[in-house]
Please model this.
Amino acid sequence: MVEARYEEVLEAAEKLSPSDRLRLASVLRDTVSSEPMERKLHSISELRGLGKEIWAGVDPDRYVDEERSSWQEPP
Model:
């Protein structure tokens, strides 16, 4: 089987008639949908440290106290 680069295939597809492009799209869709998709499983630990810059310089106790005081109804 000859390997073709994406750009070469795209260039060739652009030269097709509209009906042939539609046929090609249909064949590609069927080919892709019949192949099993490889799914990478993720771990929750991959999120560790995400957004830590948002909390830089924030005192956690003070933050919690301020949040809790905002829950109370005004007098």
Q: What stands out?
A: Residues 1-34 form one domain. The two ends are 78 Å apart (CA to CA). Residues 45 and 53 are 18 Å apart (CA to CA). The chain has a mean pLDDT of 87.
